[in-house]
Design a protein that fits this description.
380 residues; 14-stranded antiparallel sheet; twelve-stranded antiparallel sheet; 17% helix
């Protein structure tokens, strides 16, 4: 194996592939990154039996071959190389990387022991890359991070015709994001429970191209696979991951409650106020919000401890209400909205609040993204 390639192209492809490598591999070869050369270029692959990542890139190939190298080490090396062309050569059990006057000699792992990557499922449709990335970032804002509850670390994707719905919850909050896509079949109908971390990293990394291809191998969960593919530079990026098992909570119906009090606020002003007031909030204590005509008063702290309060201008339609929230969960939702105004709908101080973005105060909310937040019970 011997090839020459642009340093940035190689570094990007290696970084993309190495992100899927396990920190503590069950067998040594899973820490490796598989490099394969062919007449039309170079491919790099990583796999941990759950998630696979593969990058292709153009290169000047002198000799075809394949080698397995420590992926994280190669990523560190490529990131530190000077901005010159890179020449990679395999000689027996060693791979040499030369860039300018920098030279590295790396040991190889037994390539014959490396597992076969799963095949990419048949494409189900495509979606604009930037919109997909933004939608995924919003959906995963409510996903669980507790590995003891693996079901809640996933995002449920529902496909119905030309609409994809993505839902997540960690029991304390929930998100619902809907977006349009172009399915291969107009009557497409499927669902999948995708690991949120993999989905977020993949969507963020595939923004270089104009479209992302989505491929789903099963309408259910369990042994099904979902795949994503997009264009990057002179090559492509693709990833597959195994779907999570289990019956996901019925998140959609949580957003159907009728509201008694509706509030509009400037998103940035509320975010900054929450950040300031929460500085005195002890861990697991809420920030208290009291909505009255024309304003919301935010408070945190109590008793002999530090206290803080601040008011923010608001339009309040309906009865006054006082409610408490985990400040970080509230900030996560406000940050995900990404619009100048936030529309907040309340049923009661003990019931979840629904957040959505609006282009301006008083305008109808844009319901393609909604965020539901459970309140924290207030003393007294």
């Amino acid at each position: 194996m011997k090839f020459r390639i642009d340093r940035d192209e190689l570094a990007d492809a290696v970084a993309w592939t190495a992100r899927s490598l396990p920190n503590r591999p069950s067998v040594p070869v899973l820490a490796g990154l598989l490099i394969e050369t062919a007449a039309d270029g170079l491919s790099l692959s990583g796999f941990d039996y759950e998630t696979s990542a593969q990058a292709t890139v153009s290169a000047e190939v002198a000799d075809e071959g394949r080698a397995l190298i420590s992926g994280r080490l190669l990523a560190d090396i490529c990131r530190s190389l000077p901005h010159k062309s890179v020449e990679v050569t395999q000689d027996g059990t060693k791979v040499t990387v030369v860039c300018g006057t920098a030279r590295f000699s790396l040991a190889t792992l037994p390539v014959e022991d490396y597992p076969t990557l799963p095949d990419m499922p048949t494409a189900s449709g495509s979606v604009r890359a930037e919109e997909f990335s933004r939608a995924v970032a919003q959906a995963v804002s409510a996903a669980g991070r507790d590995d003891m509850l693996p079901l809640l670390t996933g995002v449920r994707m529902e496909i119905e015709g030309s609409t994809i719905s993505m839902m997540a919850t960690d029991r304390f909050r929930a998100s619902l994001r809907e977006l349009s896509w172009v399915p291969e079949r107009s009557d497409a109908s499927a669902h999948a429970l995708v690991p949120a971390r993999v989905l977020a990293e993949t969507a963020k990394a595939l923004t270089a191209g104009s479209e992302v291809s989505v491929a789903l191998s099963s309408t259910g969960s369990g042994d099904g696979l979902i795949g994503f593919e997009g264009v990057a530079g002179t090559g492509s990026r693709r990833t597959t991951t195994r779907l999570l098992e289990g019956e996901f909570p019925r998140v959609r119906q949580l957003f159907q409650a009728e509201s008694q009090t509706i509030v509009w606020l400037e998103t940035e002003a509320l975010v900054e106020s929450v950040k300031r007031v929460s500085l005195v909030a002890e861990r697991n204590t809420p920030v208290r919000l009291r909505f009255t005509e024309g304003q919301v008063v935010l408070e945190a702290g109590s008793g002999d401890e530090a206290q803080a309060s601040e008011s923010v201008e608001a339009r309040v339609d309906g009865p006054d209400i006082s409610i408490g929230f985990n400040h970080q969960y509230l900030l996560d939702g406000l940050s995900a909205i990404g619009l100048p105004s936030v529309h907040m709908a309340f049923t009661a101080h003990t019931r979840p609040a629904a957040l959505a973005g609006a282009p301006e105060t008083g305008a109808d909310p844009e319901l393609d993204f909604r965020y539901l937040l459970m309140p924290v019970r207030l003393q007294g």
